[in-house]
Amino acid sequence: MPLQLRRILIVDDEPNMLHMLRAVLSRDGFETECADSGQKALELASKEKFDFILSDVRMPGMDGMQLLEDLRERGMDTIVIIMSAYGNVELALEAMRKGAYDYISKPFKTDEVVLTLRKAAERERLRREVVHLRRRLRRSEGSSAMVTRSNLMQRALEKACQVARFDSSVLLTGESGTGKELMAREIHRLSYRGKGPFVAINCGALAEGLLESELFGHARGAFTGAESDKPGLFEEADGGSLFLDEIGIMPASLQVKLLRVLDQGEIRRVGETARRPVSVRILAATNEDMDEAIKSGRFREDLYYRLNVMHIHLAPLRERREDIIPLVENCVNLFNEKMGLKVKGLSVEARDALLNYPWKGNVRELQNAVERSMILSGGESITLETLPHDVRVAATNVPEFAHADDTISLKKAVKDIERTLITRALNRTGGNRSKAAGLLEISYPSLLRKIKEHGLS
């Protein structure tokens, strides 16, 4: 069955009908439960999760229509199919208006029931897929794909391609803003789960109680304000991947529950006793020092090993400066389309400033700087004047050559200037030493000697 929609509650006051339907549907792969009255069915549905409810209309006490109404009033979105030997168009229409998926007239062929259930499962699969696609579009709006020329990132991408073929958990590490979620999306896209949902959550953005409800879902009445059943992100990601950002600061109580999901492939909503099977690949990310977190007792060592089956580290932007200009060019294209601008590039001064800035916020800070500059440019190119203040200061800042004892050494000053200019030349040429030597107007052997002398890589 699509999306593992297989649990069904059969409701009928005739024992023979219950026995027959249970036998037929069990043979077809459904997990069946039976109720001989509407009231018993409502009690079961309040305690357990059913994907379908197949209910007769005419029953003593609470009939099928009243059962349907009570289910909807309690916020239960279970797929309900009504059966009746007193079928007519008016009854069918009334059932549909009250929230039934379909209506089957008795007597019926068993194949008709199975076919109706399969059609309902396919409709639910398509409905969830549309929801997932809409959420993915909203979340990815304005984001960029992986853009890189650096060897460090190329190696990380190659590793991502390798691990994508398997279903093992992946731990992505690196400073904030280095592109961990983009890498997780790339792993998901390249995996066999790529057509399934990709669901992301920041574990540090919610309080412990809210995070538990968001991840695992909750039952109606589980806590104040829980007015209806709500599936969690594990259920939403069923068949796909769940990205857990800032996993290093997840509360200890939830670490235990996450470990159980990884070990058993089941979740339990807050306020429920029933367990639900889920098929989800976990992609986790952190900028924490996990060794220190384990030593201090803030993170479980056994969970760390379950998450860290495969490990990919993303280097900060200051260690891969050859990626800066390609990222800028990509941002310019994206923001031109998004904001209706016609910015074509950047000035030499702006280029130097971007290359020499340390980018403590990494790619995210770079994107914000480019967007701001494009808005302020009012022309066809980004200039030094349109860049953020900190970037301009870093570009025009004159190195301080005074020693700690307030003496000034001309020899030391010349060496500092030389090192700064060589660094700028290498950054501007993306590490191409031949081109850098040309910009510096010195010979290639001289440049190699000075690079070694200044300890530059």
List the helices and strands and how they pair.
Elements (H helix, E strand, L loop, with lengths): L6 E5 L3 H13 L3 E5 L2 H10 L4 E5 L7 H10 L5 E6 L4 H9 L4 E4 L4 H31 L10 H14 L5 E4 L6 H11 L7 E5 L5 H9 E2 L11 E2 L1 H4 L4 E5 L6 H13 L1 E2 L8 E2 L3 E6 L3 H6 L5 H7 L2 E4 L10 H16 L5 E2 L1 H9 L5 H16 L3 E2 L6 H8 L13 H19 L4 H8 L3 H11 L3
**Count of domains:** 4
- Give a quick account of the main beta sheet: strands, pairing sense, barrel closure: 5 strands, parallel
State the share of residues found in helices, binned by percent: 40-55%
Assign an overall shape: elongated
CATH-assigned homologous superfamily of the largest domain:
P-loop containing nucleotide triphosphate hydrolases
| Spatial extent as radius of gyration | 30 Å
* CATH topology tier name of the largest domain: Rossmann fold
User: Span between N and C termini?
Assistant: 57 Å
SS field, number of helical segments: 19
Question: How would you describe what is shown here?
Answer:
With 457 residues, this protein is of the alpha/beta class. It folds into four domains: 2-129, Rossmann fold; 142-315, Rossmann fold, CATH 3.40.50; 318-396, Helicase, Ruva Protein, domain 3 (Orthogonal Bundle); 410-454, Arc Repressor Mutant, subunit A (Orthogonal Bundle), CATH 1.10.10. The protein is 49% helix and 13% strand. It has 19 helices and 16 strands. The protein has helices spanning 15-27, 38-47, 64-73, 89-97, 110-140, 151-164, 180-190, 208-216, 233-236, 252-264, 290-295, 301-307, 324-339, 348-356, 362-377, 389-396, 410-428, 433-440, 444-454; strands spanning 7-11, 31-35, 52-56, 79-84, 102-105, 170-173, 198-202, 217-218, 230-231, 241-245, 266-267, 276-277, 281-286, 310-313, 345-346, 381-382. A five-stranded parallel sheet has the order 2-1-3-4-5, sandwiched between helices. A five-stranded parallel sheet has the order 7-10-13-6-14. The chain has a two-stranded antiparallel sheet with strand order 8-9. It is elongated. 32% of the residues are buried.
